[in-house]
Amino acid sequence: MELASSIKAGNVLLINGKLYVVTKNPDHTQPGKGGAYVQVEMKEIKTGTKIRERWSVSDKVERVRLEQMQMQYLYKEDDKLVIMNPETFDQFNMDSTLLGEQLAFLEDGMMLTIEMHENDPITALVPATLICEIAECEPVIKGQTAASSYKPALLTNGLRIMVPPFIEIGNKVVVRTEDVSYVERAK
To answer: Are 60 and 1 in contact (CB under 8 A)?
Structure first.
C-alpha cells in the first residue's frame, strides 16, 4: 500500500479487484477550504475503460508490481499468440490484442517483453526498434536533397511510414516501433 500522493503515470493500481494503469501524472490540488486531494486518470488494463478517481493525499492505494519477462513468440492461432518461456520451454496462449498496433511487427521467433501479474500476461511489447524492408515508395529524384522533405513508403509488413527521399524499394530501414517512425537506413 502506498499513499495516493506518490502515484505517478505508468503505475499499475489494483482497485476493486481490477488492474488500472495511470495514464498521466495526477493533479495535486490544495483547495482553500478542505484537505488536499489527488485526481488520477486511469485506464482498466483488460477492457480499456477510462476512469477518474479523486483521493485524499493521505489515502492508501494498492500499487501492483508487474513481473517483466522475455518470451519468444512462436506462432499465431486464431486470435491468440503462442508464446514460449525460453528458459523453461513452457508455452502459453496470449490474447493478440495485448500488442495493439505493434502486432504488425510480429515475426516468428521474435523476443517480446511480457509484463505479468500472477502468471497472467497484462501487456506485451516488441523491441523498441526493428529493421524492416521497404515494399513501395516513390522513386529517387536526382538532385533532391535529404534536407527536410520526406516521402510516404509502405513496409513489407503493411505499415505506412515517412522516409527520406534517398530511400528506395528493397532498402532496409530501422523503424521505431512505438510510433512507427523512420530512424535510419539499416547498416
So the answer is: yes
